[in-house]
User: Fold this.
Amino acid sequence: MLDFDLAEIYGVETKRLKEQVRRNIERFPDDFMFELTRDEYNSLRSQIATLEIGRGKYSKYLAFAFTEQGVAMLSTVLNSKLAIAANIRIMRAFVVVRQLILNPPTDRVSGIERQMLELKQYIEEVFTDYNDINEDTRMQLELINETLVELQAKNKKPNKLRNPIGFQAILDERQKSKDVFD
Assistant:
């Protein structure tokens, strides 16, 4: 973050912020804070559409750029209630940004695509199992039918003449005795 942005957040003038940083420069090693080059500073100024006119509106000094640790150190240097509260908010923002970088949110479309792929695989597994069951069932039914055919063949007796029952037998006896007497 740049010094003028932090000064606005902390509610102090950029001049006072830089003053405190210079007085405590040993607290700001190169990996906490660095001063922009003239080219870097000019490229930032060119991004602002128009410059305001007036005495003291823009710094004649180059801007300081602060890293996450530099922002934390700056709150100890400024040591005001507003600076501490603002630093807590900034540190929380850094944590959120770090978490977003480490664990980017999944978009809904890729999540739905993943769920659809899982569902498709599940359905294919279920149908494969269903087809296996049908094949097994068909084979079992064929075995049962074959066994029933064999049992019917065993139980089937050869066609032999049976004695007639009932009235028929008596008539046959009369026929025999009639034949004998005749």
Remarks:
- DSSP finds seven helices and two strands in the chain.
- Strands lie at 33-35, 64-66.
- The two ends are 142 Å apart (CA to CA).
- The CA atoms of residues 28 and 70 lie 6 Å apart.
